[in-house]
Design brief:
3 domains, transmembrane, 7TMR_DISM_rcpt_extracell_dom2, alpha+beta, Immunoglobulin-like, Alpha-Beta Plaits, GGDEF_dom, Diguanylate cyclase (GGDEF)-like protein, about 15% strand, Rev_trsase/Diguanyl_cyclase, 5-stranded mixed beta sheet, disordered N terminus
């Protein structure tokens, strides 16, 4: 590298590192500026109408119920009240199969809002059970009965008919009121709870519903596309693409809460099974589709074996998720497998793309998009990133977009297959033509003669067969060599083609023997005239290295259907006539099979 270029590269690296450092420090400063102080976090939250809802995560006091048996009366005792704590970063934490109690205080910012109905939204659809207690007035009495809902309960238990966990409540005045929430889930964490005015929340869900509707519509369209490909071509790759779309549709519907709301509103156990199985089945089908699209068995066998191992792990995880005592392990395995498999398939796509397999480039784009989006969810569930409700929408959009890119990659593969088949068909035709053509003379071979004769026989068409044998050809070969003999054969073949019509066929049967198929039902006089022209052409010398090489010709003529109704019969008849012509030195050089006595 030249000195100026090296200096420029170092300059750009310094600029990039400086920009990244500045962004990191800025993000840290913003986060510290947003985070309230401990005294502010413990104070009652003044609720009012706010765009996007009023966030409560920083004000949630959390108690981890390791026994999973604490009741509301237990946690309200001083012994347990002292164990509620404010997490340092509430939205940064690992998911775990546990029971969490949340405690927070609310008050009206404006007493005039007392008639308003408020909604506490918990952005989760995977919580097994959610219990809402309160609000409790300062004197300790509850303003409403407890509300119990969750994935283990039918849809009718949802107080706000929301796909996510939501709770309706009223505050009669500006006093501070205490709320307790008990969450039992395989994926428990501190949730980004928000308080909404009910009407505002219902209005805000319109965009989400439109986004979900578009996503489902695209997936259904891709399902139809995959089904058409499967019905037309019947390849296994289209089965896996079709199943990938179907399982992706089921997984997204489960994550959005629509599986419990619509098909299994009264069978929460069925919604739970779907929620557990669909992500694993989607990952399995996605891997199988990727293996076949990228042709890993051919391009990268070691990567193919690794993907097979991941498939086995996912299959075991799916079964364990239904019957095992720790279903979170299933999701951890699915998450890890999806990330690892996406990275593996990304490597496989790069390997295949380097070999100019263009569908791999499109596949690479689709996998990279999903890897980035799924990575945000996976890293958040592992406690590496903060949770944000929009992360699920990002993953949903990336999953749909990945399948769209896969559809384009499938179309690209289909074009390659069709082009390959067309090239193969052309090659086959060339091979067939080569088999049907005599390489020395360029006229038809015996195979070409048989194909044409069989076609005319199937069509019931009359035709005549002329069998030609060269006289004195062996002497030319012996005296002048095989090159001279080949020159004579090629020259005579060209003269024969010029002497017949385009509808007739000239063929070389081998050695110095030729045959003609004359279409139609020519009269004896026409065939005799044709034979005379052929004999005259044969009598002309062939110029070879300044010498005039001469040969003679004997012709036998047989007609269909008079002398036979098959090519073999006609050739035998013409052969008898030809030898009769050879034996008659005073004969004109041709004979009709019809004039010969049947042996």
């Amino acid at each position: 590298m030249r000195p100026n270029a090296a200096a420029g590269a170092r300059h750009w690296r310094r600029l990039c590192l400086g920009a990244l450092l500045w962004l990191g420090l800025t993000a840290l400063a913003v986060a510290q500026a947003i985070a309230p102080s401990p005294s502010e976090r413990q104070a009652p939250v003044a609720i009012s109408r706010q765009a996007g809802g009023l966030p409560l995560a920083w004000h949630l006091q959390v108690l981890d119920d390791t026994s999973r048996r604490l009741t509301l009366d237990d946690v309200r005792q001083p012994e347990w009240q002292s164990r509620f704590a404010l997490p340092d970063d509430p939205l940064l934490g690992r998911e775990a199969d546990r029971v969490l109690w949340f405690k927070f205080q609310l008050r009206l910012a404006d007493p005039a809002d007392a008639p308003q109905e408020w909604l506490l939204l918990v952005p989760s659809v995977s919580t097994h059970e959610m219990r809402f207690y309160g609000p409790f007035a300062p004197d300790g009495h509850a303003l409403a009965e407890p509300v119990v809902t969750g994935m283990r309960h039918p849809w009718r238990t949802r107080p706000a008919s929301s796909e996510q966990m939501a709770w309706r409540f009223h505050l009669p005045d500006a006093q501070p009121y205490t709320v307790y929430v008990r969450a039992e889930s395989t994926f428990s964490r501190v949730y980004d709870m928000r308080v909404w005015r009910t009407a505002d929340y219902l209005e805000s869900t319109q965009d989400k519903r439109m986004f979900d509707g578009i996503s489902y519509g695209i997936l259904i369209g891709l399902l139809v596309y995959g089904l058409v490909l499967l019905l037309v071509f019947g390849e296994a790759i289209y089965v896996y693409y079709l199943l990938s779309c179907l399982c992706a549709l089921g997984a997204i519907a489960g994550f959005n809460g629509h599986v419990l709301r619509y098909p299994f509103a009264n069978w929460p156990w069925a919604a739970g099974v779907s929620y557990t199985l669909m992500p694993a089945l989607w990952a399995i089908c996605k891997l199988q589709f990727g293996r076949r699209l990228l042709n890993l068995r051919q391009f990268a066998p070691w990567l193919d074996r690794l993907v097979v191992g991941l498939l086995a792990a996912l299959g075991v995880a799916a079964i364990y998720g239904l019957f095992g005592p720790h279903p979170l392990l299933t999701f951890n395995l699915v998450q890890a497998s999806v990330v690892l498999a996406s990275a593996v398939l990304l490597a496989g796509a790069i390997v295949a793309g380097r070999r100019r397999y263009w569908p791999a480039v499109l596949y690479c784009v689709g996998v990279a998009l999903l890897l980035l989006a799924v990575g945000a969810i996976v890293f958040a569930s592992w406690g590496w990133l903060s949770w944000r409700p929009g992360q699920m929408n990002l993953t949903q959009g990336a999953l749909v977009l990945e399948l769209v890119v896969f559809a384009v990659a499938t179309a690209s593969r289909l074009r390659l297959v069709l082009r390959s088949e067309q090239a193969l068909a052309v090659h086959n035709l060339e091979l067939v033509d080569a088999l049907r053509t005599d390489s020395l003379t360029g006229v038809a071979s015996r195979a070409g003669l048989e194909v044409q004769a069989d076609r005319w026989l199937r069509e019931g068409r009359p035709f005549a067969v002329l069998l030609l044998d060269l006289d004195g050809f062996k002497a030319v070969n012996d005296r002048h060599g095989h090159a001279a003999g080949d020159a004579v054969l090629a020259a005579l073949a060209g003269r024969l083609r010029e002497s017949v019509r385009d509808s007739d066929l000239v063929a070389r049967l081998g050695g110095d023997e030729f045959a003609l198929l004359v279409a139609g039902d020519p009269h004896r006089e026409a065939l005799a005239a044709l034979a005379q022209r052929l004999l005259a052409q044969a009598a002309l010398p062939v110029d070879w290295e300044g010498q005039g090489l001469r040969v003679g010709m004997s012709i036998g003529i047989a007609c269909r259907p008079q002398e036979g109704d098959s090519l073999d019969a006609l050739l035998r008849a013409a052969d008898r006539a030809m030898y009769h012509s050879k034996q008659q030195s005073h004969a004109p050089g041709f004979s009709f099979a019809g004039d010969m006595a049947t042996p």
